[in-house]
Amino acid sequence: MSENSPTVTTTTTRPTFILVDGHSLAFRSYFAFAKGRDGGLRTKTGIPTSVCFGFLKSLLEVMATQQPQAMAIAFDLGLPTFRHEADDTYKADRPGTPEDFVPDLKNLHELLEGFNLPIYTAPGYEADDVLGTLAQKATAEGYKVKILTGDRDLFQLVDPEKEITVLNFSPDALKRSTNSITEVSTEQVKERLGVLPTQVVDFKALCGDKSDNIPGVRGIGEKTAVQLLSTYGSLDGVYKALNEIKGATQKKLAEGKEDAAKSQFLAKIVVDVPLEVNLEDCKLVGFDESLLIPILEKLEFTRFLSQINDLQLRFGGTVVETPKTETSAIETTNFEDDDIAFYTAEETQAIQQNQPASPIQPRIINTEAKLIELVQILQQFTNPETPVAWDTETSALEPRDAALVGIGCCWGTETDASAYIPLAHTKGENLNQDIVLAALRPILESADYPKTFQNAKFDRLVFLVQGINLTGVVFDPMLASYVLNPDTSHNLTDLTQRYLGLTIQNYVDLVPKGKTIADINISAVANYCCLQVYATFQLVAKLREELAKTPNLDKLLREVEQPLESVLATVEYTGVRINSAYLHELSQQLEIDLAKLQEQATELAGEKFNLGSPKQLSYILFEKLGLSTKYSRKIQTGYSTDAATLEKLQEVDDTGFVNAIIEYRTLSKLKSTYVDALPALVRPDTQRVHTDFNQTATSTGRLSSSNPNLQNIPIRTAFSRQIRKAFLPESGWLMAAADYSQIELRILAHLSQEPLLVQAYQQNEDIHTVTAKLVFEKEDVNSDERRIAKTINFGVIYGMGSLKFSRSTGIDKNVANEFIKRFNERYAKIFAYLEGVKKQAISLGYVETILGRRRYFDFTNNSLRKLKGSKPEDIDLSKLKNLGPYDAGLLRSAANAPIQGSSADIIKIAMVQIHEVLKKYQARLLLQVHDELVFEVPPQEWAELQPQIKSVMENAVKLSVPLVVDVRAGENWMETK
Question: Which residues form the DNA-directed DNA polymerase family A palm domain (predicted)?
């Protein structure tokens, strides 16, 4: 063609690439259906489906209107990113994730994989960064990109030249009959924010973003930010022209320059994340129906199942049969009210013929003749390798308040090897409870008949209330699962699915709100209960097979966790007496003390304010008193007034105001948490508080307690110790406490074999004085120096750094750093041991206690992940840089886990052994509080029992250093200290 030939313009339509902001759409899907729908959409078996349904509904709507050729979804990992490392307050005020969102999100990932849609994440980055990076890659390969999100942060990616737009859905985008997804280009960004896409980052740098805790420039709002950017073009332009800007705005900008720069950094989306992406994988080419259909069936998406061919075509696949000529429900994607109702909690029922046949046909024992026959069958099973599985059905979760509605048992895998005994159903034929318990007592109370229960402690308590002392429980799947991996789920539904591939019915699907299991017909409960015992029976062999792979864990279950279950049940059943009258007096005294503190704080502030209001307190601290905000962090209501902030402000406040606030908060918390709460928890029938001990709740092996949490009864201050005075023994008895002395440091000495530490304990020296001499490098040390050494000794176990050490002791940070350096040099084997444990966590993915209890660690940092499987001795921790707070925290936890876990193991062994000792006495174990056991003892038994308790605890496990236990008695718990 010659230069003079006319120009020919050709227009090529670029293919469309849809990028999806996964978490944004998932959360909107959840809340669209969770509100007003009894917790959201669920399947018949209780699986939450709000996220999956709403997400798929939105995708289909977008696909119908946009006709994309490629699609990818980006998700956050839920872990700290480079932004959190730069500012630990970033997104700190986001609300917690709803409990049922997590399993729904997990199912969503399965669903998306079933549709053959690629999912991208990047450690250290947010989904926004992944989306920005994918958008640049896609446009470079000839796509026009549309980003589906509800977040206007992504408006900064809009680029008309590259054909990048945002498909923005409003909060009501998923409501019925609402099409609220709108395409946002440059004009719409300007219309909505008042700035261009290229100015969005600087806009946020100036006015901030409360939802993400991006501070912006204090006092600069959106309107002013728009005016500044309209005039000066950019943040850089604003500050170059700062002298031209007049009045208060100039002052605010000058004072907020640092915050503006930080906010700009936080707001800017990274578009060059190191992602390994092949965009060919993102093309819509259909899906494998054999993979997708089971997922849709699990979610009970029967409407989508009926339109599987339409779905296949929509996702770029082909079908063998001719598609329907009429417009399909999938194609229109205008889901009407009946579509939504189809998935509500009450109406999401699976089609009966699609349900798998039940593997059991329970025997319903509703006559004495059938009961006699059942007893004869059960008497045949005495092999502990195949224990009979049992379960109780009750009308309430508190055993003392519950009616025993029925009992189930299973003795084999045959369809008729299970039975249900109805005792207290409101309809149908029940057996007399006294007759049933009399017939079963010889079996239930005999160790000759081995038994297995899921969560045996609950059933043991149920039987205790009925006068049955359950004996012969040899296996609890919940405890076995906990020993195998404490961080997995241990409920029967999940265990059954995980190990047996069997789905069992949930209680919430069987029993409607406002009803109890007694109101449900007997045959339905029989099937429900017997499926549970059928699963429990089979789990014994499966879990024992897993335990056999790690003999130490098998031994831990058999010798520690399993026998401990009956000990905890006895402790819970016993309860502890509370002096409610004394607590009432204490509460009145607290009211007076709090009023005085309120008056003192008001006087110091110069005006009345609500001490319980963080917003008002923030105003007093940072505006009225003029304390520096550098000690705090920006939040939605102003500046944080949390405990960490007050601790820092305490050092610079010479008015006494901060001290008054700290004391007010401390006393107020004691009053609400314990002084006023404990009397309300006293049972009228026993006049005691009965806490629940949680045996499978922690990662370390420690016990926790709830309803109420007695493990956190404070002791540090004089007033908090008075709360322990309210805990009483049986009338006329003594309260006794046995407490391990420095058990974690002794365990550290044993594990590290540090000669100085081992020698100090073997020679009964004061370890804190020994450490003080080493770090202060002198022989004569005073009490303050010993206190500082004590802080180092205990702090090193938890990975305490110089900053925290400095704050805890009040010494200069540089001095604190030098002390820790000396500690590591003087106690070289301690340092080497802790480093070695970290290397083991990286190499093996777990660490172990003295008894072999494991805690697993899953790191997110790529450099750590790549080292898994390496020899620990080949790992150089000094070369691991920029781990981020999450992985750094995991490494600290890994170093501590063997120590804390061994401490838990030791006191558990002591509890089991003491339980046997107490069988010869009237004395009772009342509480376990970390390293302390609390008893009530008749005075005449104390002299004989005291040395036995001390001996058992000190010899529970043999270490290379002695365990030392202090045992004391008094009229109440406070007097045992």
Answer: 720-941
In the chain the first and final C-alpha atoms are separated, in Å, by 101
Question: In whole angstroms, how far apart are CA 128 and each of 63, 202, 432, 481?
Answer: 21, 17, 64, 37
What are the extents of the domains in the chain?
A: 21-87+107-189, 363-545, 596-686, 750-897
User: For residue 102, which amino acid is it?
Assistant: V
Please, are residues 534 and 359 in contact by the beta-carbon 8 Å criterion?
Answer: yes
Indicate the fold that domain 363-545 takes in CATH. Answer: Nucleotidyltransferase; domain 5 (3.30.420)
Which tokens in the block code for residue 847?
A: 């660490």
Predicted confidence (pLDDT) per residue in 334-388, tens digit: 333 323 322 222 222 222 333 345 789 999 999 999 999 999 999 999 999 999 9
Q: What residues have CB less than 8 Å from 264, skipping those under 6 apart? A: 201, 202, 204, 205, 235
Structure tokens that stand for 473 in this block:
């429980």
pLDDT single digits (tens) 657-696: 999 999 998 888 888 888 998 999 999 999 999 999 999 9
Which segment of 177-186, 585-594, 849-858 scores lowest on mean pLDDT? 177-186
Q: Are 354 and 306 in contact (CB under 8 A)?
A: no
pLDDT tens digits, 367-377: 999 999 999 99
Distance of alpha carbon 168 from alpha carbon 180, whole angstroms: 8
450-459, 494-503, 882-891: least confident range: 882-891
pLDDT of 13: 64
* Whether CATH 3.40.50.1010 fits 21-87+107-189: yes
Question: Can you tell me whether residue 732 is helix, strand or coil?
Answer: coil
Cβ count within 10 A of residue 123: 17
Looking at residue 6, its pLDDT comes to 34
**Burial (Cβ within 10 Å: 0-12, 13-18, ≥19) of residue 948:** middle
Whole-model pTM?
Answer: 0.66
Following CA atoms 424, 430, 433, 438 in sequence, which dihedral angle do they give, to the nearest 10 degrees? -150
Q: Which CATH code fits 596-686?
A: 1.20.1060.10
Strand partners, 144: 16
Do 667 and 674 touch, CB atoms closer than 8 A?
Answer: no
Q: What pLDDT score was predicted for residue 74?
A: 93
Q: Which residues contact 682 (CB under 8 A, 6 or more apart)?
A: 578, 580, 688, 689
Distance CA 599, CA 614 (A): 18
CA atoms within 13 A on the CB side of 964: 12
Alpha carbons 948 and 943: distance in angstroms, whole number: 9
DSSP secondary structure string, 383-442? Answer: -TTSPEEEEEEESSSSGGG--EEEEEEE-SSSTT-EEEEE-S-SSS-PPPHHHHHHHHHH
Q: How far apart are CA 588 and CA 679, in angstroms?
A: 14
Instruction: List phi, psi (to 5°) of 970.
Output: -165, -170
Rounded to whole angstroms, the Cα distance separating 261 from 908 reads 54
Can you state the angle between helices 522-548 and 477-484, rounded to 10 degrees?
A: 40
Residue 140 parent element (H or E): helix 127-140
The CATH-assigned architecture of domain 750-897 is Orthogonal Bundle (1.10)
Do the beta carbons of residue 703 and residue 928 sit within 8 Å?
Answer: yes
**CB 77, CB 858: distance < 8 Å:** no
